[in-house]
Amino acid sequence: MRKTSRAIVLAIPLWCAVLCISCPSVAGTLAYQGSSPDSRTKSRKVANAVVYKNKKYGFKCVLPETWKGYSIIVGTWSGTAHQGENHEGTESGPMITIRHPLWTKSDPRQDIPIMILTKAQAEIANDLTVSAAPFGPQEFSRNAKFVFALPPRFDYGDSTGTEEVREILRNHPLHPF
Questions:
Q1: What phi-psi label fits residue 29: left (phi over 0), alpha (psi between -120 and 50 degrees) or beta?
Q2: Are 86 and 60 in contact (CB under 8 A)?
Q3: How many Å apart are CA 115 and CA 121, to the nearest integer?
Q4: Beta strands in 32-158 (DSSP E)
Q5: In tens digits, what is the pLDDT along the chain, a chain of 177 residues?
Q6: Angle (CA) 122 139 21, round 5°
Q7: What is the pTM of this model?
Q8: How far apart are CA 166 and CA 138, in angstroms?
């Protein structure tokens, strides 16, 4: 039994490494969901944080001090729900986009888009097409009424600030209430 447990413990990290190398989209998912900053870094970032609070949907988003002066864009996402052969439905919902204060038309920066889904929409999220990506939205957090998700490949381009947004997301900035 002990040899089997040791083999499993050694095999899991190897399997994760192979999966992350062979599938970059999975690597990004694992990075957003699995990483955690050490407590000193997290405390320092929270002390200088800028907080966006959305009472309507029940969440707050903690941003670094460099995002002071951000803007909010309220929009709508829509997609097709594939629910079996020859049965498609249309789904839509609100999208809150947090825009960096240095964003300009001549130098657009990476936004932080937050899709708001109902719990019913979240249950079919894997079968929901909202972009050309072959997978649905990625759940980020949830509260009693809503599920918060990132659109597929929202950070796929090479906009200024893409790495900064990825780092923000690795620190789990969205807190439901």
A1: alpha
A2: no
A3: 11
A4: 50-54, 59-63, 71-82, 88-99, 112-118, 128-129, 138-142, 146-150
A5: 555 444 444 444 434 433 333 333 333 333 333 333 443 344 344 568 999 999 999 999 999 999 999 999 999 988 888 766 666 788 889 999 999 999 999 999 999 999 999 998 888 776 777 765 667 788 889 999 999 999 887 887 788 999 999 999 999 999 999
A6: 130
A7: 0.69
A8: 14
Owner of token pair 């040791």: 6
Six-digit token pair at 173? 């900035």
Question: What is the token pair recorded at 125?
Answer: 């999220």
Look up residue 107 and give its amino acid: D
Separation between Cα atoms, residue 152 and residue 25, nearest integer Å = 9
